[in-house]
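lol so apparently i was supposed to do this last week
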Amino acid sequence: MSSSETEKYVYIDALGSREGQPITLKGWVTFRRDSKGIVFLGLRDGSGFAQTVVTQDQVSEETFALASELALENSVVVHGVVVRNERMNEMEVAVSGLELIQAGPEYPISRKAHGVEFLMDQRHLWLRSQKQWAMMRLRNRIVFAIHRFFQERGFLQLDPPIFTGNAVEGTTTLFETDFYGEPAYLSQSGQLYGEALALAHGKIYTFGPTFRAEKSKTRRHLSEFWMIEPEMAFYDLDRNMDLIEDFIVFVTQDVLEGCAKELAILERNLAPLQNVQKPFPRVTYEDAVSIIRGEKEVDGRNSLAVMQQDLDELKQQIAENTADIARREEAIATGSLKKGEINFNRSRIDQLIATNKELEEKTGNIPQWLESARNFPRGEDFGGSDETVLTRLFDRPVMVYRWPAAIKAFYMKRDPEHPEYVKGVDLLAPEGYGEIVGGAEREDNLDLLLHRIEEHKLPVEAFQWYLDLRRYGSVPHAGFGLGLERLVTWMAGTRHIREAIPFPRAYGRLRP
Ligand code: 4AD
Ligand code: MG
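anyway here it is w/ magnesium ion bound
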C-alpha cells in the first residue's frame, strides 16, 4: 500500500480534529442497532469507541447488506466521513463503505449481565469491553506517573531479582520453586535488594512483580502483584512519610488531569480523589486503636457513631428504593402505560434491584464491623473492616505510624523513645480501600538487626549479604512499598482488585 493511502487511516481518538473529512477506521464492532433504512454500528479501535452510521440510500447494496449482518467483535474496515452528532456532542462516522476482515462464531460476552467468574474465565476477551479498557488505560497512566514522580526527583529505577534465597515479609506467604535443584522463592518484595542499591545510588526505586501465597479469596489480595519500592539513604521515618504524601498527591493529581474520560467511563465519584491534598493525617498506632474502639474522637466525631449513622442512612435508602420499585410495578400492572414507558420502568426497576442488592450487602456487613471495632484487641494488626472504620472519620488518606514491634517485619527500626514500637508506617486509603502503602525506617545497627533475625527465626546465613550493608558504612535509611493494583483499584473506585491487572493471579485463578 502506498504511503498516501495509509495516511488516511485514523484512530478514533483523533476524530475530533477531522470533522467533515473522509477517513478510514479499522476496528471491531461493539454493537449493532437496526432501524428502517439505517444501521448504527459501534466501533472500537483500541484508541476509543465511536458510533458509525450506515444509511441504506447512501451506500451500495452490498455494504448495507454487510452492515446488517455484522455481529459483536467482528473485525472491520470502515470508510466514511466524520460528522458531529450534535445530540451526543461526539464525532461519529457517516459510512460510505465497509470491509469485513473476519467474522467468526457468536461472541461469548453479550451485552446482558454476566457473572464475574464467567467474565474472569473470558478475561482475554473481557479486556476489550469499555470499562476494562478504561481500567487498563488508568493503570498505564498511573505507571507512567509513578516513573515520572521518581525520575524527576533523581531516583534510579533498578530491578531486584525475582528468584530469591530469603524471605522478606515473613515465611508464610512464600512461593517455593526449584532453582537447579536448590529451593528458591519468588520474591515477596524487592526491598532488601533495594537497600543494597540505595547504599550504592542514594535514592532508588524498584518496580516489578512480587508474589505472595495468600490462600484466601479477598477483594484486596493477589498472588502476583506489582510493587513500587523506593529506598532512600539518609531518610528517617518523617522524611519517608513526607515522600509518601508527595507521591500519592502527585499520582492522584495526574490521574485527575489525564484520565477524565476513563474515570467517567468507570463512573468514578471524583470528590474523594480531589480531596487527596497535603497534609495527610498522621496517627500513631495506639491512637488509631483508640479511634477504632470508639474511645477517641476525631474533630468531635466518634467512629462507631458515624458508622451507625451510615447504617441507618443505608437502610432508609433501601426502603425508599423498595417503595419506588413497588410504585413502578403498580403502574405497569394498570395496563395503561405505553410500550416505551413500560420498558423504561422495567429497566429502572432492574437498576433499583441491583442497587438495593449492593446496599444490602453493605448493611449486612456494618453491624459485624462495629462489633469487631468495639472489641479490637490492642496490639494486633488491623483487618480490612478496622481500616474502614478508622478512615471513615477522615476525608483523605491516613498514615498510621509507630507500630508494635511484635506485629511488624524484622527489618523495621525500633523507636528509641518507645522501644516496644517500630518506626513503620502504613498508608490507608479512604472509602474502605485499606492499606495501599507499607514502609519503615530500617534497622541500621548490625547487632540489633542480627538479634531481630534470630528473634524472627530466620536463617542468618541467608542474610549475611544483607548484614554486610550494616557492616560497611551503615547509614540511617528508609523506604516503602506501594501495591500498584491496590492503588489502581482505589483510583478507579472498583470494588475488587482482580480488575486492576490484565491477567490476575490469585487463589483459585491461574488461567487464562
Ligand atoms: O506492607 P507490605 O507487605 O510491605 C513490604 O513488602 C515492604 N517490604 C515494602 C517496603 O518497605 N519496601 O506490602 C506493601 C504493599 C501493601 O501496602 C499493599 O499495597 C501491597 O504491597 N500488597 C499487596 N497487593 C496485592 N495483593 C497482595 N497480596 C498484597 N500484599 C501486599
Ligand atoms: Mg503491610
